[in-house]
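debug: dumping io for the single-chain case to check the tokenizer round-trip. Nothing else runs in this session.
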Amino acid sequence: MRVAVVGSGVSGLAATWHLELTIAQLLNEHSPHEVELFEKEGQLGGHANTIWVQNPGKEGCWVESAFRTCFQVLFNESAWPNFYRFLRHRSLPLRTSDGSFSYSHYAGRQWASFSPWSLFPRWKHLLSARPWSMLRDILWFNATAIEVLRSPVYEQLSVGDYLAARGYSVAFQEDYLLRSSDIPAILVLADPFQPLIGAIFLLPPQRIAEDYPIVMLVRSMYNMGLLQLWGKAPWYTIDGGSRLYIESIVQNLGPDRTHLNTGIVSATRSGDKVVLRDERGTERSYDHVILATHCPVTLEILRSGGMLTEVAEEVLSAPQYHSFSIVAHSESEVLPEKVHLQAAWNSQVWPRQDGQLDFVDPEGRSSGTDHFSVTFDVNRLQQFPLHKHGHILGTLNPSIPIPASKHLATILFAQAIPSQRLYTAQKRLHELDDDLYPQGISAVGAWRGVGFHEDGWVAGIRAAEKLGGKMPFPTVPRDREVAGMGVIEWLRGLWVGPVWKEAMESKEKLL
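debug: decoded output
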């Protein structure tokens, strides 16, 4: 069978690797397929990309360009089980990473995730009700949020609806779950006891509250172990960057089956074949085509070739995409002023100055009157010694101009936005597959989940499995069953939450 994979992002690479297992006869269970990979850009990997950077007078190093995507810079076995097993299967080098997080607000609200005490960077914070309220509700949320995955009544609720219904404090919402995560529009899930950065979605905070499904949020936190206070999986990064795993996948394809700078413009059914036409007008026939492109691109390819069905248009039109850029640089002035608040991920909020750009989401909602910035300390994330490489930072929406002498690169991204609309469309993925597969088409991508690297990886694997591929290890489903409530979890939900609520409410009245 001749198979074409269009798009070399994580889903395309996963599908290619899985089918290549069959070609290499690693399983000896299926007939070999002939696989070809198409990529519009001049390099493979999509967001999974590694760039070479070097500060003057320092040693150079390979740096993950996807600073905002913790699912590429950081991962663990709990939340990325299939991708992690692939890396171990290929014996790729891993190194432990730093997932610490800090938050600074110009009004004086500050905290970091190094330990419980880092929630109180100044003595006066111990006498403030706000951090105690946040801490109380973190424990309460961790103890009770699992209910969302056990009942269908929560499927139509947004994050804001759920938090309001459960009476969560403003401190928890603004300084932990929403405000600390909108950089401008960043959703960062962090655990102040053992920091785990979960996911980042570039959206204004009101968009998160209004349209981010609570089910998608809690599922992500559950998969990553963020709803537990102990026994968490360590975080890793690939020693050498994503380029190593990309090279390990495409090495068996060869240049004759890897088509760079070749954008596909249409897919047309011709007899029992699918004909792909590229930008140069070249046509190639295949038995099956896996479209691992962003949904707008997939829609246009199908529409141009007359293969777009009503179901496909409805489902593939659901994901909305948001574009943004991150500046790679060596300007340490963007880090928090207090050294003990400098972490791997640093979120800062400042009053907006004249001339500073406001961030607007695809539906026109603004990030507000404040200026939000996040700086990723790559030295911490990828364990690059400062004395050898100098500062290597990635900043979204810098609060100060980055000097040209310290500018290393500007990286552009586009990402699907998790929303209630997308969550509803995901309920129809089986309809989409049943509609396209008989025509010789599969449409995959991280948009089938919440946008994690693992979501894209699993989507590609599933498409390859339908064509006869088989993993050398069992695939762990993303929507795996929620474990039953154990004694410790039950006691924590029954006792810890109410006790903390009562104690903190009394404290707030006194203060």
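debug: round-trip ok. The CA atoms of residues 161 and 487 lie 29 Å apart.
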